[in-house]
Design brief:
With 533 residues, the chain is mainly alpha-helical. It has 28 helices and no strands. Among the domains are: 1-85, no CATH class; 339-532, no CATH class. The longest helix has 20 residues, at 144-163. Keywords: Repeat, TPR repeat.
């Protein structure tokens, strides 16, 4: 539902609507009323003009058409007209759709939605479905900026429960909305009443979520286990139980529930994601995350988005962010990159990413650069961009910006001539030569690109693991083994797929004693930068 790009205020739109009404041009009047409702959904003058237009048109709903490209203002205007025509359920359906499109707008903050007698004209199951539609538009819990715009729906829920005090689906859906809006006590009360009215799998799930939000973990688990007993085939509940147990440090019990789900369906996405995340949290072996990335790549049609991989990689060296910059490489001779290449890198370079495959995907923006430009970007990183993040990095930590630029230049090399077989490819040869060069930021950036290739392309893993193992072996026995660059390389090894156990143990020894040092300080600094940027 794309919005109009015009910059007129609601009052200006209404003035144009009244002029069009006076001339009998109802179509243009409707367009301006719809635009005014987008600018100010609760403005009384907008609703008065809408009522005048409705009277002039004889209730012609086609003035506000629906379709795949429906304008959100038209959807909202039609909702109000449907309510005025005695069809409030249809009107609420459209308001809920508008809320799904733009949940921060107060589409429902109008008298007819919060009227105490409205639920008497609604089927309680229809009301429950509308509340569930609103819940789908709001995170759990909803951020504060969404609570006021969504509050009218909670008033609708209260009024509906007054009229239908024992309707289980309505009570459960209302509980889900109350939970999102921060009223967990009310959420527990309503969900409890719903289960008492009729024990159902969905009702127990809603009760379990309400208890969990209220911090009543044992009761939450009991409710979710009752849900499993009522419907043993709903494997999403198994994953919810596992997640709840894991949140309280009970990883073995959590994995037990995941294994039960996987025994029923080895490809069930929620259980697979949860299993790999929990196994990584238990033993720190990155191959669990690599297996999860493989699953995501091989199952692009998952029913919904999962954040397990990003959650595990967030804030972890090389898995989700660069490490602190060490000594800069000497600036080699050679031409500077083209202005177009520099701009492209400035748009992409960032000190953090969701996970290595996400970094690889983002770097595709450098795929059209030629090899000379990519190498020039590595040797002569451009200045930090004139963005909020770029200004902070360039002003407070230029070395970190240089580090970011070199990392992304090497990620760009991964997209160079991807039609060439890996073993004989230009990208493998160039990155391998850089990785084997003098130990420094360029070598680390190249190694990270190679590690990223191993995440994305399973057929490169043996090759990349051998390259990383060779580099770690040299560091572990050389004079740099106690330096920050050695620790950074050790973290790279920890991020490497299919690395042999001996090299992983060497990396662990290099990292020992370094936890909580400059890397943690860097992450705190990056977090502050993200908030400001």
């Amino acid at each position: 539902m794309p919005e109009d790009d015009a910059a007129l205020s609601a009052e200006e739109e209404l003035a144009l609507a009244r002029l069009a009404l006076g001339e009998g041009d109802l179509r243009h009047a409707a367009d301006h009323v719809a635009a005014a409702l987008v600018r100010s959904p609760t403005l009384p003058e907008a609703h008065e003009t809408l009522a005048r237009l409705n009277a002039a048109s004889g209730g012609d709903l086609d003035l506000f058409p629906l379709g795949q490209q429906a304008f959100v203002g038209a959807v909202v205007a039609r909702a109000h007209l449907l309510a005025a025509a005695g069809r409030p359920a249809e009107g609420l359906d459209l308001l809920a759709a508008a809320t799904g499109y733009a949940p921060a707008a107060p589409w429902a903050a109008v008298p007819w939605v919060t009227a105490a007698d409205l639920p008497e004209r609604l089927d309680p199951e229809r009301t429950a479905r509308i509340l569930m539609q609103v819940c789908a538009a709001a995170p759990d819990p909803a951020p504060r900026r969404l609570r006021e715009p969504l509050a009218p729906y909670l008033t609708l829920a209260r009024n509906a429960i007054t009229v239908h005090p024992a309707h289980p689906l309505l009570l459960g859906a209302a509980s889900a909305l109350a939970r999102r809006l921060g009223d967990v006590t009310l959420a527990v009360t309503w969900a409890t009443r719903g289960v008492r009215a009729q024990p159902t799998k969905l009702g127990e799930v809603w009760l379990g979520y309400a208890y969990r939000s209220a911090g009543r973990t044992a009761e939450a688990l009991a409710a979710l286990e009752r849900a499993v007993a009522l419907d043993p085939d709903d494997l999403a509940v198994y994953a919810d139980i596992a997640g709840t147990l894991a949140d309280h440090g009970r990883l073995d019990a959590a994995l037990g529930w995941v294994d039960r789900a996987l025994a029923r369906d080895p490809a069930f996405d929620c259980a697979v994601h949860t299993a790999h995340r929990l196994r990584y949290l238990r033993d720190g072996d990155v191959d669990h995350l690599v297996a999860l990335a493989d699953f995501v790549r091989d199952h692009p049609d998952d029913t919904h988005e999962h954040g397990d991989l990003a959650e595990c990689c967030r804030g972890r060296p090389w898995l989700g962010q660069v490490t602190p910059a060490g000594d800069e490489d000497p600036a080699p001779d050679g031409p500077a990159p083209s202005a177009a290449a520099a701009r492209r890198l400035q748009q992409l370079a960032h000190p953090a990413w969701a996970h290595p495959p996400a970094a690889y995907d983002a770097a595709v923006g450098l795929a059209t650069l030629d090899l000379a430009d990519l190498l020039a970007l590595l040797a002569h990183p451009p200045e930090a961009p004139a963005t909020a993040l770029g200004r902070v990095l360039g002003g407070q930590d230029p070395a970190l910006w240089t580090r970011c630029a070199q990392v992304w230049a090497c990620l760009g090399l991964l997209h160079h001539r991807t039609d060439e077989p890996w073993e004989r490819s230009t990208r493998r040869r160039v990155l391998g030569e850089l990785a084997a060069g003098d130990l420094g930021p360029a070598a680390e950036a190249a190694l990270f690109a190679l590690v990223t290739a191993a995440w994305v392309h399973p057929d490169t893993r043996t090759d990349v693991a051998a390259l990383v193992a060779g580099r770690i072996a040299g560091v572990a026995t050389g004079p740099v083994r106690r330096t920050p660059v050695a620790v950074s390389l050790a973290y790279l090894a920890r991020a490497t797929p299919a690395l042999d156990a001996a090299t992983r143990a060497t990396a662990d020894r290099l990292i020992a004693g370094a936890e909580g040092g400059p890397l943690r300080r860097l992450w705190r600094r990056l977090t502050a930068l993200f908030r400001r940027g």
